[in-house]
Amino acid sequence: MKVVQFTIPVSKENTIVVQEDILPHYYNHLHRHREVQIEWVIEGTGILIAGNYMQRFESGDVYIIGANQSHIFKNDETYFDSEEGKQIHSVSIFFNPHQLMNNILNLPEMNGIRKFVDGLHNGFQIPKESAELIKTIIKEVMQAKDSLRVASFITLLHQFSIARNMQPLATNNSEHIISEVEGIRMDHIFQYLVTNYKNHISLNEISEVANLTPQAFCRYFKKHTDKTFVSFLNELRVNEACKMIVSGKFDSFSEVSYQTGFDNVTNFNRVFKKTIGKSPREYHRDFRARLI
């Protein structure tokens, strides 16, 4: 199973590849490709893991995935149930940064864009205040052809380069040198965690999945995610708890706690506040206030 290197269908006639997908769910394995990926999630929800970044993604989000940055858009469980009839709708724009650097971005007028593209190793999430304009330009890139597509794409890169509060998708670029064997192992680990987060997962259990001793696993996991196993698992559980709270489909915060794998409510409240910056009750209250 080769899951790390992923080949994008790049045409020799095109510098910029635009791909619109309507599918039951996103590609379900950790992977990477040499192209930078601009991803507009038109419809779909789940968890994005990119490098040492992990956060829920929602419909309307826009991301930039760096070249060779290992990532997975892991859809919620309901997308894998055919009876639910759910689909994802996305627009992806792929480009080779080295190709751009050696050609278009060599012009002196492109200095600002060149610096932005050169710093894309860790990727970004586009802030909501910039997202609507970005989506409009992505539509223009989709609809344009030939030189007009290139012109629209340069406009898109320009808007990225001047946008404020861009949130990096990782804090290290060690993923650039991850081997295929390591990538397959990390995929097995992530797949196991996102499938079994509701259950108690011991260090011995996850170490066996990775085929490592517990001590070696801790070092390995920290090296590739910049997080401890416990902190990563807690983050995953808190992200799922946020989804439950936003949906309103729960009777008590105790239920949210046990449904997302926490052993007791006290621990759930402590970890939730440490991760999100507010208690589950405050998070729920603030979300309802935004709806009003």
From TrEMBL:
Q: Name one GO molecular function term.
A: DNA-binding transcription factor activity
Sections of the chain in a coiled coil: none
Give the keywords, sorted: DNA-binding, Transcription, Transcription regulation
Concerning Pfam families, the annotation shows: HTH_18 (PF12833)
Q: Where is the HTH araC/xylS-type domain?
A: 187-286
In the UniProt record, does the keyword DNA-binding occur?
yes
Lineage: superkingdom: Bacteria
Q: Can the keyword Nucleotidyltransferase be found in this entry's annotation?
A: no
Q: Which PANTHER family match?
A: ARAC-FAMILY TRANSCRIPTIONAL REGULATOR
Q: What is this protein called?
A: AraC family transcriptional regulator
